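Backbone shape codes:
===
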Amino acid sequence: MKLFFGQKVTKSYLQRRYFNLDDFWERSWKRRDFGSYNIVKPGFVSEGRSVPERINRPSYFDTSMPPPGPDEPEIKTEAQIKKMRDSCRLARFMLDSVGKYIKVGCTTDEIDAVVHSLAINNNAYPSPLNYRGFPKSVCTSVNNVACHGIPDDRCLEDGDIINVDITVYLNGFHGDCSAMFLVGEVDKDGKALVKATEQSLERAISICRPGEFFCNIGSEVELVARKAGFTVVPCFTGHGIGSYFHGPPDIYHCYNNYPGKMKTGMVFTIEPVLAQGSHEIVILEDGWTAVTLDNGRTAQFEHTVLITDDGVEILTNNVA
């Protein structure tokens, strides 16, 4: 997910940045009723987990700064595609596996521990760890947290919705996917948001093929979101991926005129974020956690896809 993963930030979308959390959380404003759930505030973040020497680590493990990606969308070779399939298959396996641990009372830090262990046990590196200083091995975004939530000691509560975003670095290539999970009894508004977001991703993937314009992905997401009564959060984009975590093309999930067409051999993520209310978000003082300005809930789903001669292959599809 590109934004302040060292990428583009558009001022019109990021209206305000709060450094005084007490003032932010205690603000009072009138907002529509978004349903039954609790607003999430950041908790205590423990130290990042260690990585054994035997694990192949990306260069940013030591420096926190990734090398630049390619200047243009990469056309991958068969050898590169094979490695992408392996890393994406592992990412999906980990995402499906961690879902079994998500329940009322579980902390997001415990989710981080599970993800980290799964990566290490499969001889892979959890890509988010120390990427531009991110302190944990996975992103966990609950309720009003739109993206890049940092795992902490907050216990998941009955009625929460949570996005778990997993990326792994295996044999020199990153695989990336995310999904929503329902915690306990989620209200109908939350379920509707999650369903529409997943449908918007499916709709966007369905048009992918050689010769298709990248910008049409955003049009498809917008159509699904608006029909369901939700808003696209436009400042979060998908991205090219490979031996680099983030690179071209940028994949916008809103109406846009981003240039370029898809070509056989391109690999990129599609990962729309839909919101119940306003598209406006703020980034908290940790430099990562993005929350909605109106405290409405958001949802996100993500796949990594490969453009093939006759269409598209979802590299992070559930193989179960």
User: Anything to note?
Assistant: Helices lie at 21-26, 60-63, 78-98, 108-121, 188-206, 215-228. The chain has a mean pLDDT of 92. Residues 214 and 261 are 6 Å apart (CA to CA).
